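On clarity, I found the account of how folds are encoded harder to follow than it need be. What matters is that the chain and its backbone geometry are given together, residue for residue. For the editor and my fellow referees, an illustration may be useful. For illustration, here is how one protein appears when written out as sequence plus structure tokens:

___
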Amino acid sequence: MQPTATPDGDPGGVAARSLLDERLLHELEQLHRTRHETFLYGSDDALRHHNERTAELEAEYLRRFPDRLVTAGRTRSGARARETAAHIEATPQ
């Protein structure tokens, strides 16, 4: 597996294209889990690296799984349907 590097030469991890599907998912889960803390408390370099690595891994995931499962509730129409249902439920009859 080929490691990637940040612009300053620090290793950035294994290139996304080299990761097995299972490892790609694991890496994405780790990055998503640490996102909030990195955003709030990480240095500018740490946040930049986090953004770049997340973009690299997400792009690779989408390349491999263009027909991934999309839950209806996670779309705009699904969000509007939830909002309408909540409004109807909150309206006294």
